[in-house]
Amino acid sequence: MPVEFLGIAGTNPASEVEPRTGGALDLEYTAKLARAHEDNGWDRILFAYHSGSPDPSQVAAYVAGKTEHINLVVAHRPNVAYPTLTAKTFATLDHLSGGRFEVHVITGGSTADQAAEGDFLSKDDRYGRTQEFIQILKQAWTSDERFDFAGKHYQFEQFVADIKPLQQPRPRISFGGSSAAAYAVGAAEADIFALWGEPLAGTREQLATIEAEAARAGRVDRPTIQIAFRPIIGATEELAWEKAERILGRIKDVQAGTPSPRARLRSKTPENAGSQRLLKAVAEGERHDRALWTGPTGLTGGGGNSTALVGTPETIAAALLDYYDLGIRIFSARGYDIYDDAIDFGRYVIPLVRSEVAHRESRKDLAS
Question: Which residues does 168 contact at the CB level (< 8 Å), separation at least 6?
Answer without folding.
Answer: none
